[in-house]
Amino acid sequence: MTVDVYEAVTSRRAVRGFTGRPVPRDTLERVLSAAAWAPSGSNLQPWRAYVVTGGPLAVLKRRAGERVAAADPWDEREYEMYPAALKSPYRERRSAFGHERYSGLGIEREDWEARQRAAAANWDCFGAPAALFCHIDRDMGRPQWSDVGMYLQTVMLLLRAEGLHSCPQMAWSVYRRTVAEIVSPRTASSCSAACRSGSRTPRWVTPVRAGRRSTRPSPSSRGDRGGAAGRGHSPAARRGGRHRAP
Ligand SMILES: Cc1cc2nc3c(=O)[nH]c(=O)nc-3n(C[C@H](O)[C@H](O)[C@H](O)COP(=O)(O)O)c2cc1C
């Protein structure tokens, strides 16, 4: 299936209802190997992605569902999802989003319980058969978080090229400890080993290999090399600065 980039971009939307039909492992591998070409400052590739499917995903959904049912408090935040006081026009946009989302489900603005029930579908991944959790080392800064955003958008567009949809979710961050019970290096290696040894049904928690070690030479960087903007001729070099180019 070929999808024009414009079509991939405009047909991507946050989908909140999936069939649960398993996605073949080679499809996910194709998407994730290509997504590894997403750009990042100094090619750090600061994303650490884990794919969770099959049994481990069912366990994760069950444990999260139990926490929701028990009205378990959310895990303490490592970051704020939104600024405490959203200013205009963001406040209005957020409120319009909430209105669209819940009125589309026939839920009244004041019906807090129904809203909570609808939101709880987040922790069932809206029925999706595969989840990708993306981690970043705590010592990375805002520029690296933007790298992760580019990576995730690349994944979502490539999924469109495979005829698949997705939904980005911050919601899982509130149950991050439950996620960590499933997505941990120890479980990851044992599950991916189990997967390698046999079954064609994807059932794995596996770290996604970054997939590339270097940058590709691009026509412009080849062309630039001898030019005024080429290496050794950057503004920093001209100023005698010691900063490395980003
Ligand atoms: C960083 C990020 C976090 C999001 N978290 C959630 C989430 O937890 N649950 C959810 O249902 N949608 C979530 N969304 C989806 C947004 O609500 C959605 O992208 C936005 O409303 C625009 O709609 P569209 O993606 O369909 O164009 C998230 C999107 C982004 C980019």
Automatic annotation (TrEMBL):
Domain Nitroreductase, first and last residues per copy: 10-181
Organism for this UniProt entry: Streptomyces echinatus
The entry's keywords: Flavoprotein, FMN, Oxidoreductase
Protein name: Nitroreductase
Gene3D superfamilies per the UniProt record, alphabetical: NADH Oxidase
InterPro entries attached to this UniProt entry: Nitroreductase, Nitroreductase-like, Nitroreductase/BluB
Superkingdom field: Bacteria
Low complexity bias spans: 192-201
GO molecular function, one term: oxidoreductase activity
Region span, Disordered: 192-246
